[in-house]
Each structure stands twice: as structure tokens, then as C-alpha cells.
Amino acid sequence: MFSLFLIVAVLLIVFSGSALDWLTSRGLVALEDLPLIQAIRWVVTMVLLYSTIAALFNAADFSKERWRFITPGAVVTTLLIVLTSVAFAWFANSLSGYNRLYGSLGTLLLLLVWLNVNCFFLILGFDLDTALNKARRNGERAEWMDGASHDPT
After folding, report:
1. pLDDT digits 0-9 by tens, 109-146
2. Cβ(86)–Cβ(14) below 8 Å
């Protein structure tokens, strides 16, 4: 289930722009409807990706705390993965000169870099959630959580 949501979300990020352009050029989608369709596309993508990441973080956490669906780590990870995917899609679509030089190996290399960066973001987000949960269990609170300003004097 995790994989299916993740694959659908990534496919929506990478290929839906080209698909909408194709549908618009064929007259199957009216230009007036395009902003609404793009907004729906991004909402669906973000919900699928966030749900996958939140469930994955819950499955990886072995503490006996109840599951919280909205966590800072999952939010940060979702935003970073979406931004990275958009950047890689832009790079693959507009700067495709690497494909002439490297061919299929260039595409494979780009895919592996994208996977590596997104895996790093998953680890970073999970580590953020783990650190915040540990601080909460120990009763530690940062000053910014209490609304206090930091005055070193």
C-alpha cells in the first residue's frame, strides 16, 4: 500500500504536467478548467505522499505511543520530496542535453540521484520526529515552544 501511494504521487508530480498539456492541445480539457485541475492534482499528490510518509514513519517507530497523523517530520519530508521532484522533473524536461551525451545511463543516473536525495529526506524527517518525541517524553521544551525569547544576558 505504501508503494502504490508513493508511485502514484510521484507519477502525478512528474508526468501530469505533460499529460495536461497534451490533453489541452487535443481540446479534451478547456483552458478555463486548467487551473482547477492543476490545483486538484497538487492536493491529491500532497495527500497521497503525506499519507504514505506518515504511515511509514508510524510503522518504523517502535515506541508504544499512540500514532499522530500530523507530525513535523512528515510535513517537512513531504515538502522536501515534492520540491525535489519538481526540480528533477524540470531538469529532466528542460536540460535534457545530458541525454545526448550519456543516453539511457544519464537517465538512470538522474533517477538514482533522485532516489538517494529522497531517501535522505525520509531519514531526516524520521530523525526529526524521533528527536521531538524523545524530548517530549523527557519533558524538555525548547524556549520557542513556550513563546519565550532568548536573552543571553
Report:
1. 888 998 999 999 999 999 998 888 888 777 766 555 55
2. no
Domain boundaries, the chain: 2-133
Q: Enumerate residue ranges in the chain where pLDDT < 70.
A: 1-2, 64, 67, 95-99, 140-153
Contacts with 80 (C-beta within 8 Å, 6 or more apart), sequence order: 121, 124, 125
Dihedral-angle region of residue 6 (phi above 0 means left; psi in -120 to 50 means alpha; beta otherwise): alpha
Q: Using CA atoms, how far apart are residues 115 and 28, in angstroms rounded to an integer?
A: 34
Check if the beta carbon of residue 86 is closer than 8 Å to that of residue 13. yes
- The three cell numbers of residue 64 are 508504544
Of 32, 38, 8, 7, which is closest to residue 20 (Cα–Cα)?
Answer: 38
